[in-house]
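Q: Entry one of two.
A:
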Amino acid sequence: MKEILKTILLISFLVMIYLPSFCWGFFGHAKINNYACFLLPPEMMILYKPNINFITEHSADPDKRRNLVKEEGPRHYIDIDRYGKYPYTEVPRKWKDAVAKFTEDTLIMHGIVPWHIQVMLGRLTVAFKEKNFSKIMKNSAEIAHYIADSHVPLHTSSNHNGQLTNQKGIHGFWESRVPELLANKEWDFIIGKAEYIKEPLQYCWDRVLESAKATDTVLNFEKELTNQFSADNKYSFELRNGKTIRQYSSAFTIAFDKKLNGMVEKRMRLSIKSVASFWYTAWVNAGQPNLQSLVSQKFSEADTKEFEELNSNWNNTNKMIGREE
């Protein structure tokens, strides 16, 4: 019986599939966008609540685009450790100043998430001013993605997947496995209301620096726990979509979350608050337009075709352009 079990485990190991990790994972991004809608004032909720399924389902569109657009990848992260030591005062916070000091190519090479969020904020503000239903919805779903990414510690490190410290897979562990196992069962998402952000750029840099400061903790704690768990207790196998998946065990995941003192939950909660606050800020900056007339609007055939093509490409393409997480 033991020999049979060993054979089964060996076969499972040989055919196991490592699922790619993208930022908070589709589960995390969907939950962040969904909960953010409920932090909005009634004047915005009137439009966002009827379209909450779109906001939720399209939360990962920027990740899906990474299969098509080479410029997309750097918008999700910033390897801030490439610029010295915390608090990284060597990096000018304003884009034009940073370009003047390091060149645009260098910035793109190491990631541009805090600056790209400003671009997206501008687009969403214009969409509100124009009262353009399609652009409001699409830009809302997508700016949320980049904002949430900036709250992830490993999105601020060149050792983004533990590849430099023999911890490959830690990226998806922190931002996908932990929330997928614990968010619905144990975490609290009663957060409050969206708030106006007076200085969006500084706000983004504050979140990036928080993430960067937590990176060593994430890596060190995972390594410490690894020394306490045997390999067969650290990992487990499960069947997902007809494929055998090797992943971090529930016991290891729970121990990691406890050791981090709820870090993942706290960063997810802050992501939700940040997303709602950026939506609200764009609306206020646009003059707080009345959104009632947009409630009955639908996406055009061109929009629908665009979404279908993006999903089709995502489902049929296994390799994304740029670095893999």
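Q: Entry two of two.
A:
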Amino acid sequence: MRSGWARAALVALLLALVALPQFGRAAQDEPVELLVWDQFTDPTESAVVDAIYAAFTEQNPNVTVRREAVATEQMRQTVRTALASGTGPDIIFYDAGPGYLGVLADAGLISSLEPLAEEYGWNERIAESARRGASWEDELFGLPLQADLIGVYVNNTLMEEAGLTTPTTFEEILTFCQDASAAGYIPFAFGNQEGWPAFHQIAMTGNNMIGPEAMEALLLENQGRWDSPEMVRAIEAFFVEMRDAGCYSEDANGITYDDGNALFFGGQSLLHSTGNWLITEISENMPDYEVEFVPFPAIEGGAGSFWDSGVGSAYMISASSPNQEAAAEFLDYLFSPEVVQRWVDEANFVVPAEFDVEAVDATPLQRSVLDTLAASIAGEEQFGYNIDVLAPPAFNDVMLNGFQAMLAGDRTAEEQAAAMQAAWEEGMAAGAATPAP
């Protein structure tokens, strides 16, 4: 679903500033076997994971890591039963969010990492927004390995030539779209054929409307409603008002995400609302353009303008594992500076770990993203939440199909909000009773 990790920008995430505890306490004891389930089934990623796990056992010769790569859907169907039986893995790499991590935490199937976070300094090394994405009821239960930053790319070169300025409010967006169209441009390079690109758009308008704290409560604590007047307004803003103002192509549902990227790369569109994973392709395809990355503008009556970030899966420890100490050392190793470097260099992951921005040779566009990520880790920048990575699959299905229907004019914002709320309630209820919502 992602296109082209921003390799050069990610290198900055390698440079952790905090010294780590020494490894090997488990290795000094009797032999230990750690059974690890992860979701790295891609051959390239899997080879990197094998090498990293093997490096841990080299440093800890009394620890054997037995790895099983499990497809995401299979993991969702089996992990709860396996953990509850006491015969499952010691460590899982599993989805964050209330429908996954939250369900396991509620059932007492995974260990709280709060004491370990203090002992190993994880709170200082891992971005707060990423930790919250892997927490349940204000308690850390997982270590997130990947993070995204979502905002709006601006082609400043063409904007200047057209005499246009970057909109800073939603009302300015609607005027900008009219002016950009009159100048012969597609204002936003938005392609939604696959359906998932709409997830990022509602994340931006939703967080800006209700604010990160309310979004956190909604996603992570199941407090609030998706059919509130504020969320209806957030839905209507992008999928009705921007549609009617001609902010993107009339056939957005017929344009793929990659084709939308091509519109921006080729200078046919002036703005592109997507994620930091596109930086490498922008650098490669737009060498003659000055491109800026900014948060989505504030909506009148909303909470402000925020970058949005999200985490995918996270490493968790089974509560029934007899090898809690060895498992903790293994997780700490996976987030050590040298291994963070390998995750980024070899697997192209965005690891939300502390880094030294000034030590990186980066383009201005890359530098702006690194500065933003560094500010978040330092607690100076508040991020909104990427919704789909923290939501049950059925809820995402409603978003995917519903937003496509809205773009086609076949569903209202109120109808979509009601459908999202119903799917959320169903997903939460199912998640509490079954291995996967």
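A: Comment on entry two: The first strand starts at residue 32 and ends at 38. The domain at 18-146+312-353 is CATH 3.40.190.10 (D-Maltodextrin-Binding Protein; domain 2).
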